[in-house]
Amino acid sequence: MKSLMLPIAAVALLGASLEVAAGNPARGQQIAAQVCAACHGDDGNLVLAPDYPKLGGQHADYLVFALKAYRSGDRDNAVMAPFARDLSDQDIRDLAAWFSRQDSYLVDMPSSRRR
User: Fold this and answer.
1) In a domain, 83, yes or no
2) How far apart are CA 35 and CA 19, in angstroms?
3) pLDDT tens across 7-54, in order?
4) Residue 78: which domain range?
5) Which of 26, 57, 27 has its CA nearest to residue 41?
6) What are phi and psi of 8, to 5 degrees?
7) CATH of the domain at 25
8) What is the count of structural domains for the chain?
9) pLDDT digits over 45-90, tens only?
10) Residue 18: how many CA atoms within 13 Å on its side-chain side?
11) Residue 24 and residue 60: Cα distance in Å, rounded?
12) How far apart are CA 78 and CA 59, in angstroms?
């Protein structure tokens, strides 16, 4: 019986760490309401200008990558940098979990507008 305890404990810890790594969508919703909704809407699908991205339904890993790049300055954007600068890694994972679970209204950009 003792020999089973260690593997069971390891699996439980792994599951808990994966849940944290994936982000908490309920907490992400709270952060989004305070930080993101004014420009991106409550669910990430309302934008104020054509060059503002829709976040609803976007891939979580992409959102994490983009927010970390805004935060570090690797992605230069005068609007996003001040918002992302104060986000922790957990905040970013939580936001990504929230927005990635929303309905998607993303559409492919016409080839004529691609660079």
Assistant:
1) yes
2) 23
3) 565 555 455 344 446 899 999 999 999 999 999 999 999 988 888 999
4) 21-104
5) 57
6) -65, -45
7) 1.10.760.10
8) 1
9) 998 888 899 999 999 999 999 999 999 999 999 999 999 999 999 9
10) 6
11) 12
12) 23
**Residue holding tokens 């890694």?**
89
Alpha-carbon distance 65 to 95, whole Å?
12
Alpha carbons 27 and 4: distance in angstroms, whole number: 35
Distance from chain centroid for Cα 80: 14
Nearest to 28 by CA among 99, 95, 89, 102: 95
Residue-wise burial string across 55-70, b where 16 or more C-beta atoms lie within 10 A, e elsewhere: bbbbebeebbebbeeb
